[in-house]
Amino acid sequence: MHSQHFGKLQLLPAVDISEGRAVRPLGGQLLGTSQSVDPVAAAITWCEAGAEWIHLVDLDLAFGRGTNTSVLEQVIEEVRDRTSNRIKIQVSGGIKDHRSIELALSLRPDRINVTSAALAQPSWLEQVLEEHGELLALGVDVRDGVVVARGTDWRGDALDASIMWLERAGAQRYVVTDVSRDGALSGPGLEPLQHVLALTGKPVIASGGVASLNDIRVLRGMTAQGLEALVLGKALYTGRFTLEQALQEAHGTAEGVSVQEQLAWKPPTEQAESSGE
């Protein structure tokens, strides 16, 4: 593989909102709100650092504890008003039925990340894919090779069967999360990601587990296979690196790293980060 085959990896810094504040979930669970900041300030910070996308998550909707739709609306409005470049917004969090997708559509986002729990309602999912296919990214949360729904006990089919069904149903894009690594800063779950990339020609977004710039380097090496983007959460909030540094790695402008080094790197055997759905 030659260096020119490596594309630019889009980065989507996450702003996860609970009870009106931006917070961090861990491993698909919400453990209090010890780290909370103003969500508008968080989003504007990422925009000013060079973000082209924001991944905006309603955690309360995801965990069935109410909604933050008005807060998300405020964040989107402020981001679009206060930034000179056109920042794109991907809305996420508990979007799995008629009511939740109507709330998401009301925000007029650039993309809606439907949660993997929507697979439990195949006829509804087929319908929304038909109506809004290009606007949707299908969340595929994976644990031990099975599609699950974060924050619930729901377990779906094996990853292969789920992707094959979604391909037939008209899915246009996927967001893949290894749930065991979400928020744990232990490295991205490359296995389910590579699996999905092998099964589809559609764009794929990675989410969860990134702990270092090296992780971003490795994921950028997968752009040749169809990896389009990465949702970044905890690693940014805990200061593992800055968004500016992450963007340099993702765009291939960081210095001193050869393609050979990218390909030779092996992921750690333990388990890392991202945003709730």
TrEMBL record:
Active site residues according to the UniProt entry: 16 (proton acceptor), 141 (proton donor)
Primary location: cytoplasm
Keyword terms of this UniProt record: Amino-acid biosynthesis, Cytoplasm, Histidine biosynthesis, Isomerase
Superkingdom of this protein's organism: Bacteria
Transcription regulation recorded as keyword: no
Localization of this protein: Cytoplasm
E.C. designation(s): 5.3.1.16
Entry-linked Pfam families: His_biosynth (PF00977)
Catalytic activity: 1-(5-phospho-beta-D-ribosyl)-5-[(5-phospho-beta-D-ribosylamino)methylideneamino]imidazole-4-carboxamide = 5-[(5-phospho-1-deoxy-D-ribulos-1-ylimino)methylamino]-1-(5-phospho-beta-D-ribosyl)imidazole-4-carboxamide
Name the record gives this protein: 1-(5-phosphoribosyl)-5-[(5-phosphoribosylamino)methylideneamino] imidazole-4-carboxamide isomerase
Gene name of this polypeptide: priA
